[in-house]
Amino acid sequence: MGMSVIISPATQHDAEQILKLQYLGYQDEAELYGDWSLEPLTQTLDSLRAELGEQEFLVARLGDEVVGTVRGRVDADRIARIGRLVVHPRMQRHGLGGRLLDAVEQRLQAAHEVYGFELFTGHRSLGNLRLYARHGYVQTSVKEVSGRLSVVTLGKPVPAPLAASA
């Protein structure tokens, strides 16, 4: 292909591509859980545009095409909540999801005081669970949503800075 993937902040101009990628990326999840009413599949362009102004969004670009995205925000408790990590199916299993996860963590830490990170996925989403474990996330809770779906919440503390030696 000859082009490299560049990760950068999303803009309002990216909203339509992000929405299409999100829809494409969550098809496997919907099939896995037998639920096509998942919020990423039903989100409107207007609500996504509103979120772009409220959260940190990153996109991975291959030329002009958005091939990955992730978003995050820091709550009052200084926990960074990361969500909707999506990589185009043809770009999966090449480390792009991990690069996006690292990039959003770094961006949130650069802009806010962060004590830890939190994200969630479905209990059957084994690829997601493996990715998050490789990046230091550990399961903190499991909540049954329905007979088909349990949501697994994972967290990762931010290491305390090393004290300067005297």
Tally the helices: 6
Structural class: alpha+beta
Number of separate strands: 7
Shape: globular
Named at the architecture level, the CATH assignment of the domain at 5-118 is 3-Layer(aba) Sandwich
The main β sheet shows up as: 7 strands, mixed
Average predicted local confidence, pLDDT: 92
Helix content: 25-40%
Distance between the termini: 52 Å
- Looking at how many chains there are and whether they match, the oligomeric state comes to single chain
Quick rundown:
With 166 residues, the chain is of the alpha+beta class. It contains six helices and seven strands. It is globular, with a radius of gyration of 16 Å.
Describe this protein's structure.
The protein has 166 residues and is of the alpha+beta class. A 7-stranded mixed sheet has the order 1-2-3-4-5-7-6, with helices on both faces. The protein starts with a strand and ends in a 9-residue tail after the last strand. It contains 6 helices and 7 strands; from the N terminus they run βααααβββαβαββ. The protein has a domain at 5-118: 3-Layer(aba) Sandwich (Aminopeptidase).
Task: Spell out the blueprint of helices and strands.
Blueprint: E1 5-9, H1 15-25, H2 27-33, H3 39-42, H4 45-54, E2 56-62, E3 65-74, E4 79-87, H5 96-111, E5 116-122, H6 126-134, E6 138-144, E7 150-157
List its salient traits.
166 residues, alpha+beta, Aminopeptidase, 7 strands
